[in-house]
Design the sequence.
């Protein structure tokens, strides 16, 4: 499989994430409101997706809908590339050994393996993305400084 396919896979994942990211931010804000554990999130402020979009844009600015996008882009580029890379490399190796493209149990197990490995490696970045989306960001941290804070 050519290198272009991996690049396109990662790039298309990032573009799709960019398009859907404001709605994902609203979903996260709706999910975390009303928590008892974090005093900043105890109030019920949002009453639906459109209300959340409007309120966040008005109070924090349009760009706050993209808080944490750098984490999402890193995750999607890595996850999309890993999944395709593992799946198509495994499939190519299978075909070279005389396996059939139509062998469903092998293809399913290969797809599951690719997804699990990709998820294991990108879940910490996804956690940082959700943390950045859940509240207004007053300081703009780098990926590395945020990762260090989350590990400690």
Sequence:
């Amino acid at each position: 499989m050519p290198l272009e396919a991996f690049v396109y896979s990662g790039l298309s994942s990032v573009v799709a994430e960019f398009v859907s990211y404001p709605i994902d931010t609203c979903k996260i804000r709706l999910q975390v409101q009303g928590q008892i554990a974090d005093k900043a999130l105890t109030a019920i402020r949002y009453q639906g997706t459109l209300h959340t979009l409007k309120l966040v844009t008005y109070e924090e600015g349009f760009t706050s809908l993209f808080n944490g996008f750098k984490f999402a882009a890193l995750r999607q580029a890595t996850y999309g590339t890993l999944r395709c890379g593992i799946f198509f490399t495994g499939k190519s190796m299978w075909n070279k050994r005389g396996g059939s493209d139509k062998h469903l149990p092998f293809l399913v197990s290969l797809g599951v393996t690719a997804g699990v490995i990709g998820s294991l490696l990108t879940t910490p970045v996804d956690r940082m993305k959700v943390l950045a989306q859940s509240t207004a960001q007053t300081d703009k941290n780098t990926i590395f400084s945020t990762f260090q804070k989350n590990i400690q």
Helices lie at 3-32, 49-60, 69-96, 104-134, 143-151.
